[in-house]
Amino acid sequence: GEGAFNSGRTVLPLLAGGPANLSAAQGNARGLDLSLEGLHWTFLLSLGSLVFWELLTAPLEQVADDSLYEYLDFVDATDRYRSLWIWRPLGMSAGVCGVTALVGQLECVLMTNGPRGVLHFYGYSLVGTLALVVSVSFPVPICRRREPSYKTIKALSLVGGAPQLIVLALTVFLVGAATSAVQNFLFWHMEDHGSSELVMGFSVALGSLGEILLHPFKTTLLRKLSRVGTVGLGLGCLAAQLLYYSFLWSWWSVLPAQILNAISSGALWWAVKASVEDLATPGTARSLGAMFQGHISGGGCSLGSVVGGFVVMSFSLAVLYQACCVVLLLWLALFLSIQPRLPQEQKINYSKLLVMEASDTSDSEQGTERDWLVKAMREEDS
């Protein structure tokens, strides 16, 4: 047992970012009386269980989203689909704050010995059980429209054939890789500075609430800055956050930077989704958006997690944050410099234009300014 702890002394502080997590990990290991071989087997079993669980739940979000969209389309209420996004950040805010507050209250009552993080898994299981009960009444259309199996391949070929989508995909990939550095190590960094779990949950909720408060200005922001400018602003804010995190001096100092999540996460993804919808061919907008948000961003998070772990082990957490900041700033400069040189191809989304025509019931205004086809052709020429 002692040999395992001696070898772990050189690794754990690098992983955790400071002495607080080292002492906690050593205390947990002593309490469980695990040898080095036992620690390895525990890690492998935990990793295998986590991978198996992620494989089971990976399609859950996309299936639920598609089912909800098809149900609203079935009842002719797709206009309500865009207003349902607010429940995601609200649920995330309530979940992280509620679970951490509940764990803080029940820790003294339920925990006698063993890792204190077990209560978080109990809370996760409780929320999952409640979600299972609610899913029974989830609206799923009876005659579900069967999606063509080639839509994902078609969306992938569309990305490969459009320079703007290639640049956008690289941007999303790098954002996912940089975001993984925050998701993987920021809480440990806060714990090293004496932060409680409730403050960690509040920091996540603060970013989600900032996105909700900024949403009423979404249209104005995209119109004034353009989509390219909004993506650039999001990259700059994310780089500023990472640089700020590398110089944290107290547990509360992370809270002001979390407000920038409204731009570095919210506004950036608004611009990405709007660009994808404009560049997608008819029938591929949803598949292309799901690919950007799931495969490309998720791939960036996966690679960023692996590379970030090696950087933290070899150097330090501050070096990881500063390196991510430099990479994002370099890509921001390249992104803004190549945008004017890309072919400006804007496809006309006729389904949107038909909806606009159907909703326009006023015939009082004269002239070609009310002709949606003329408007579309003018926008395409410009």
TrEMBL record:
<dbReference type="InterPro" id="IPR051717">
    <property type="entry name" value="MFS_MFSD6"/>
</dbReference>
<feature type="transmembrane region" description="Helical">
    <location>
        <begin position="90"/>
        <end position="112"/>
    </location>
</feature>
<feature type="transmembrane region" description="Helical">
    <location>
        <begin position="319"/>
        <end position="338"/>
    </location>
</feature>
<feature type="transmembrane region" description="Helical">
    <location>
        <begin position="198"/>
        <end position="216"/>
    </location>
</feature>
<feature type="transmembrane region" description="Helical">
    <location>
        <begin position="124"/>
        <end position="143"/>
    </location>
</feature>
<keyword id="KW-1133">Transmembrane helix</keyword>
<dbReference type="InterPro" id="IPR036259">
    <property type="entry name" value="MFS_trans_sf"/>
</dbReference>
<dbReference type="GO" id="GO:0016020">
    <property type="term" value="C:membrane"/>
</dbReference>
<feature type="transmembrane region" description="Helical">
    <location>
        <begin position="155"/>
        <end position="178"/>
    </location>
</feature>
<comment type="similarity">
    <text>Belongs to the major facilitator superfamily. MFSD6 family.</text>
</comment>
<keyword id="KW-0812">Transmembrane</keyword>
<keyword id="KW-0472">Membrane</keyword>
<dbReference type="InterPro" id="IPR024989">
    <property type="entry name" value="MFS_assoc_dom"/>
</dbReference>
<feature type="transmembrane region" description="Helical">
    <location>
        <begin position="228"/>
        <end position="245"/>
    </location>
</feature>
<dbReference type="Pfam" id="PF12832">
    <property type="entry name" value="MFS_1_like"/>
</dbReference>
<protein>
    <submittedName>
        <fullName>Major facilitator superfamily domain containing 6-like protein</fullName>
    </submittedName>
</protein>
<feature type="domain" description="Major facilitator superfamily associated">
    <location>
        <begin position="43"/>
        <end position="323"/>
    </location>
</feature>
